[in-house]
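Dear colleagues,

For the upcoming journal club I promised to circulate an example of a predicted protein-ligand complex. I picked one with 4-nitrophenyl phosphate because it came up in last month's discussion. The inputs are reproduced below in full, followed by the predicted structure.
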Amino acid sequence: MSAVPPASFLFVCLGNICRSPLAEAALREAADEAGLDLDIDSAGTGAWHIGKGPDPRSCAEALRHGIDISSYRARQVKADDFRRFDRIVALDASNLANLRRIAPAGHSARLSLLLDHVPGLEGQDVEDPYYGGPEGFETTWRQVREAARNLVAEIAGSGR
Ligand code: 4NP
């Protein structure tokens, strides 16, 4: 009998350089803290930044929390992601709508909005911090960390 593969999560924003890399880092950290084996990645619906590292402000925010994300590389969501990942978590409603639009028929991934995993913030977007100041990245970190902890609790409780 083969072992059950770890639950897999893909976080999706627009560019895959600001918000979703921080969500990926936060879930990696929360899973490590909980001793949970998860398969975690992030991607963008847009193609502008393919192959680039995260925005320096995201790198700085992650480093403030002891996490080095400088080796992450941006990529674009692809059809196979909807089969490969159990869960695809969009950082905002616009990207969730785009994911639903491009999802192949009969795909198996469960799609959700990141802040639907944070009680009190359901239905809200993780605002794009790209055009703002560093405080936007702090807010992003706080929101993705809270969601990541809740996702871990959800997985630890249900097994998936
Ligand atoms: P992200 O932020 O979706 O959080 O990675 C953005 C980064 C770049 C652009 C838009 C959003 N852009 O238009 O280049």
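Two points we might discuss: Residues 13-19, 44, 48, 128, 130 surround 4-nitrophenyl phosphate (CB under 6 Å). The chain has one domain: 8-158.

See you all on Thursday,
B. R.
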